[in-house]
Design goal:
alpha+beta; conserved putative lor/sdh protein from methanococcus maripaludis s2 fold; Helix Hairpins; six-stranded antiparallel barrel; 22 strands
Amino acid sequence: MMRRAALLVLPAAIVLGCARTTPVAPGAQAGPPTLVRTAIIGGGGAAWIEVPGSVEAARAADIASRLSAVVESVQVEEGDFVRKGTVLARLDGRDVAARLEASEAALKAATAQRDRMGALFARESATEQERDASEAAFAAALAERDAGKAQMGYVDLRAPFDGWIVGKQVRAGDLAGPGRRLLSIQGTGLMRVAATVSRAQAERMSRGQAIEAVLEGGAVVPTRLSVLAPAGDPSSLRFLVKSDLPAGSGARAGSFARLRLPRGGDDHPASFVPRSALVERGALTGVFVVDDGRARLRFISPGEEAGDAVLVRSGLSMGEEVVLEPGTLVDGAPVERRP
């Protein structure tokens, strides 16, 4: 009799192995049913979608050198507040100073030659060609001297505006080269939330549109859309948007935030699942689906948040029943709906 029962169980095990759920956990068959709260998956949810983003300063810059020279000193550290024009770092300018001195000497000689040729030409003792040549030599020497002065201005790296030093990638003795980032500065004032949205969402948005942002800690603040990229990222197929935060929001650059966008009719009308139903298994996200009195763990592809619900891109269908707050529930465990 027991052998016949084992044979009857075998096809059922094969069928379950082909389903979209994970294998039944050892010991899940034993014990009384666990009382659980459940919810039916539907396409409802809030009238808005929340897309994740981050807070950034509207004014920020990377400080780089226009010269190839050794860094002589660095005057700031991360977290320092600096005023516009403050010297942040100084390069070894001896080579630049030597070239400037040479160009000044060349300019002095070219000036004397120009004046001499001008006087000789006035007495008809020099040709017009000789005078023009001296004028051209003077102009070239003057340009060389001016370029040397400009180069000397690159020896001191100065703050382009008032702000905070948020990055330091250089030490005294390092070799700085053109384009290499040495320091990062973040300006004071306007802060923004940057996020990416789908094509359908981008088509419903416009610059200046009033929306809301949810900051870390749950504070909801009004914002206004300031940047709407006309083209999407070809790798992610998402469009960049930025929204200005009001003064005094308390948001800090680098912190997490969400933009709350109006939900449209084509915004994934499929499935929303309560956030409390989600379980994490490493890098995967899943839910327990109630199937014939048992909890079956099914992995899903979650999308944007909408209030206390999360959009499900794939893995669930409308009308299915999921377990809320599954806790230590295991795959295949018998469950009973709590009254």
